[in-house]
Amino acid sequence: MHAKSDSEVTSLEASSPPRSPRRPLYYVQSPSQHDVEKMSYGSSPFASPPHYNCSPIYHSRESSTSRFSAPVRTHPKNPHPWMRLHRRLPNGEEDDEEDDEECDGDGERSGRLTMRFYLLCFVLSFAVLFTIFSLILWAASKRYGPKIFVKGMIFHNFNVQAGMDQTGVSTDMLTLNSTVRIFYRNPASFFGVHVTSTPLELHYYQLKVASGNMEQFYQPRKSQHTIVLVVWGNQVPLYGAIPLLTGTKDHMESVTVPLNLTFRMRSRAYILGRLVKPKFYRSVRCEVTLKGNQLGKYLNLTNSCTYN
After folding, report:
1. Rg of the Cα trace of the chain?
2. For residues 40-65, average pLDDT
3. Of 36, 113, 262, 298, which one has the fewest beta carbons inside 10 Å?
4. Which of 79, 13, 82, 300 lies closest to 183, judged by CA?
5. Apex CA 148: angle with CA 144 and CA 153, to 5°?
6. Which residues contact 201 (CB under 8 A, 6 or more apart)?
């Protein structure tokens, strides 16, 4: 079949109806038999003219369009018209670079979540271990409570005389001056203690006749010392509450008055800064007998006190 000449192509184009400019028609022109023979004879003068079986090649608009065009996809995240084209792999699958980017983003997010999970586990583990360690220290510190006992007491002065209270009521007034010696020891080897105490009070049953205050102090580890405190009362109205003192103003040497000395000491330790704070309380109650003929003498109270 011979190829069409230029005039035939022109006539076909004129007779064909107008087509859409978006899809042009493509034609492939094959060489004529004469041109083929001429080319073959020109290349080899002794060669016999070969026979060619030429067939026309027809191309449809769909094949031409599919050859020179590629599908363009739009992505909701990138609606711009200049997006990348999909590459088609030999097996028919499409290689989407944006899908790879999404996979990378998902991998980064999962990596962040994993790091946060590990960080949270580390913080919780550290808190649990630190709590257990603090409880161990607290329990160990309880074995090293301070040692406290009252060594003795001295009454320096004791006097009863007539007087008036603040409202002008006449009654007997008592004046008392004494000192108390307290032994304190901290046996702990890994912490010191801060020591405070309630006021030391001398009572005749429910009547308070003298009191004294203890200043706060710090006791280092594995150390001890003796505390000397002044317990006194000045012009304490009796209102007849101590019948033993009635009519004894002139012979105080024969007076014997039972008294009670009470106070409570608190010791606090600070371990690991202020995170572990064990406390130790000791309540003391001592029975003391005031004798008028033993003023100024030391009274041993080692076996006369109870500790709680």
Report:
1. 57
2. 45
3. 113
4. 300
5. 170
6. 208, 210, 211, 231, 261, 262, 263
Which position has the higher pLDDT, 141 or 228? 228
CA 86 to chain centre: 51
Tokens of 234: 């000045």
Coil, strand or helix at 229: strand
Average pLDDT, rounded, for the chain? 76
Element (H, E) at 160: strand 147-164
Listed range (19-28, 258-267, 279-288) with the worst mean pLDDT = 19-28
Lowest mean pLDDT across 20-24, 55-59, 270-274, 290-294: 55-59
Give whole-number Cα distances, 53 to 4, 5, 31, 43, in Å: 17, 20, 12, 19
Mean pLDDT, residues 113-138 taken together: 88
Residue 242 structure tokens: 């101590």
What residues contact 121, with CB distance under 8 A and at least 6 apart? none
Strands 193-197 and 256-269: antiparallel
**How many other CB atoms sit within 10 Å of the CB of residue 23?**
12
Question: Can you tell me the distance from the alpha carbon of 113 to that of 107, in angstroms, rounded to the nearest whole number?
Answer: 10
Calpha distance 233→224 (Å, rounded): 29
72-100: per-residue pLDDT in tens?
A: 455 544 545 444 444 554 555 555 555 55
